[in-house]
Amino acid sequence: MSEELWDRVLDAQEATSSASQPDFPRTMAGVRGPLTMKEDVNSNVLPEKDFADLWKEEDKVDLAKQSLLNKLIHRSLVRNRNQVEVLQRDPTSPLYSVKTFEELRLKPELLRGVYDMGFNRPSRIQENALPMMLAQPPQNLIAQSQSGTGKTAAFSLAMLSHVNPDNKWTQCLCISPTYELALQIGQVVEQMGKFCPEVKLAYAIRGNRMERGKKIQEHIVIGTPGTLLDWCSKYKIIDAKKITMFVLDEADVMIATQGHRDQSIRIHRQLSQDCQMLLFSATFEESVLRFAEHVVPDPNVIKLRREEETLETIKQFYVLCREKEDKFAALCNLYGSLTIAQAMIFCHTRKMAAWLCAHLIHEGHQVALLSGEMTVEERAAVIERFRSGKEKVLVTTNVCSRGIDVEQVSLVVNFDLPVDMDGNADNETYLHRIGRTGRFGRRGFAVNMVDSKYSMDIINQIETHFNRRITKLDTSNLEEMEKLMS
Ligand SMILES: Nc1ncnc2c1ncn2[C@@H]1O[C@H](COP(=O)(O)OP(=O)(O)O)[C@@H](O)[C@H]1O
Ligand SMILES: [Mg+2]
């Protein structure tokens, strides 16, 4: 943004400040109030930001951790009203979909296990995926849908239904990217197979040492690629030629991990030609697709697009601030004048999040903090507490917040604006932070803290991108604020 435009922004600010509010803004004890014109005019320029610096502190997103976090916080199905797209290997064959689990003609003990988990009917993706996975002769399947839509439950059911317990050898292999995710799958299989005690399960994970050459009898083996490869080739405790169902879960996470792609392919090579191949992924980038096509010949493909998020029901504002103290004061003003059910506040760095959290607590707020150094389990616990309303404010960095459902949150504050590595507006993250899914998404407010010309430019980019106005808000002007935010 040009200097003149920034000046115009500041002029506008001065006009409103002086018209409606002759005095200095209301401030919190010991904290400077929001940016005022006097200061701006005197210092003339606002600080420039070095956005590259912002990235240094934060970790890169760890896909496997993210996936595990999703597992821990998603206790139920993720709503998705989109239509499933199905690409059949043989387009002339009839397309089966089921609306009930009965239609699948499962063993009664297995059906009981499904109902015992509280599943009443198949999820969107399961409606199509289950008949395909259970079809005779077997069909290969590639399925993609966001986390929480029922993929793991679907292939767990397929594995349990597939095995013949009288055959005392391994019939299903399931590869998962990490130890923790493998255990998660195993828990589902165990729970669903609760009334089928004759079906046995083993975990091929690091530390599970086995005797060489003696074949194991477990019907289903779930594990990480390295250990599974060892079990098949080095220890020869699984006869890969006898495997009749091969499942690759979280393929996108898998191939993002060094070495896992090749190990998976080496296991795959040992399987017999007629082994049924099933691959699941939350995303379908080019690299995932190429991998999928390589390991799953002649597949049926099922895709379920994520429900679009919109800004339709969100009122968006920005507040001019100079430094973090101003942002904090603005935040306190917002809180002082609005009835806010729950709020989420985004900071760019852990350090900023910790600073803000400490100050909010000092002001008497009950605050939850999500931070990069926390374990996945700790994060899940914090999110759970926030969800149940034990804390009304959640302070987080972007890396930590992915996957958190914001539907219940009435105020989202971008304490720092979302920017990409090149320092441009990160529109996707912006939408993800404040957008709501579904046509009847609840109303909400988004407040953006603008602390430099650079960040004002980001706001303009976001406005242009979404073609929706972001209104200036003077948090020191109570009357105006109440009017705007009502
Ligand atoms: N048909 C269903 N009905 C109700 N809940 C389901 C159903 N299928 C799965 N779930 C639940 O939804 C959540 C997500 O399922 P999961 O299979 O882990 O999804 P994904 O593998 O796509 O992430 C889990 O808590 C699971 O128990
Ligand atoms: Mg899954």
UniProtKB/TrEMBL annotation:
DEAD-box RNA helicase Q domain: residues covered: 99-127
MF terms in GO: ATP binding; hydrolase activity; RNA binding; RNA helicase activity
Keywords assigned by UniProt, alphabetized: ATP-binding, Cytoplasm, Helicase, Hydrolase, Nucleotide-binding, Nucleus, RNA-binding
UniProt subcellular location: Cytoplasm; Nucleus
Locus of motif Q motif: 99-127
Pfam family for this entry, one: DEAD
Main location group: cytoplasm
Domain (Helicase C-terminal): residue spans on this chain: 313-484
Entry-linked SMART domains: DEXDc, HELICc
Residue ranges annotated for the Helicase ATP-binding domain, each copy included: 132-302
EC numbers on record: 3.6.4.13
Superkingdom classification of source: Eukaryota
Signal peptide residues on this chain, from the entry's feature table: none
GO cellular component term of the entry, any: nucleus
Name the record gives this protein: RNA helicase
Organism: Betta splendens (Siamese fighting fish)
Gene: ddx19a
